[in-house]
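User: For my dataset I need records formatted as: sequence, then structure tokens, nothing else. Please produce one.
Assistant:
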Amino acid sequence: MFNIQTLNEISNIGTDIFDKKMYNISNSIENPDAIMVRSAGMHDMKFGSNLLAIARAGAGVNNIPVMECTEQGICVFNTPGANANAVKELVIAGLLLSSRKITDAIAWVPSLKNEGDAVGKLVEKGKSQFAGPEIMGKTLGIIGLGAIGALVANVALHLGMNVIGCDPFLSVHSALKLSPKVKAVKNADDVYSEADYISLHLPFNADTKDFVNTAVLNKMKDNVRILNFARGELVNDADMIAALESGKVGCYVTDFPNASVIGVKGVIAIPHLGASTPESEDNCAVMATNQLIDYIENGNIKNSVNLPDAEMVAVGTKICIIHKNIPSIISQITASLANFGLNIENMLNRSKKDYAYTMIDACGGNVTDEIVSSIGDIDGIIKVRVI
């Protein structure tokens, strides 16, 4: 029986996929074999030696100590694309809100509550203060053309916009989903110089912190509108506020409110609603569950943020090894198996930066605890599992 701990409420559409004869799912489990999480913070958690995987029902993993997990041989999954449509729809809403001063206008209307028959005339007199440009014919710049960025780009084209995008890590999968009408450039500066609106779709990490700062803002058009539905830390708040005050930025729409930007003129702060749809939560839960099942039962990896994708069918006993990506370690593993008289029917090795994952289809005898210990004693081996 495998124990799955849920740190947040996970859609039953996903958790019902687990075979209840093999899996126990609860929010109160101690020493779980796997954890499912949405936004709960995990940086202060202590992980047991039996923890195999953490599945984040969503894209961002900033709430998970990924490096610590890697060092302990814990596979961390996310669910890229599962909430893409939900975020896309909110980005488009933000695009329109940024242009037409809709939120300011809606906030103004209650002030006319007690004006009686004069409301109609006051509306006609006061509406000009909320005028804003149409988006048709304008240029939308997209930084990051992954699952969400590509969807936003395609919708913007249908709305009559010109779209220019930049993504140095554009995958073949994402590229195939991107309309050929999108002007793809290699340098983000080319996006800044052309775009009337800019939408950020970057992951947050040490390299992208404060990605939008004064130096970058100065490369943009005057009165540019910026949409941030990716991560709040991508934007330097102080620099953004200064750009709004100077008129360099016409509007900043963010799905990540904080004390610095709340109430600032020109900021539309949305309370992190990007993936808050029942469809998105269901999609994320289903993907996270299926990834956990395939890893726990078969050792296969798909959509891990810290280990490489790997899939292999075995006819014998499958040995799954998480290890450092260092020279000669594979030869040591195979030599250890040979010493015990085991034959390697098939083998798959994949690496991701400093870490690697090896799956071995072993035949010719039982894979005993002694064999597992022999492999585990090799320098650079992190975790060995037999399926």
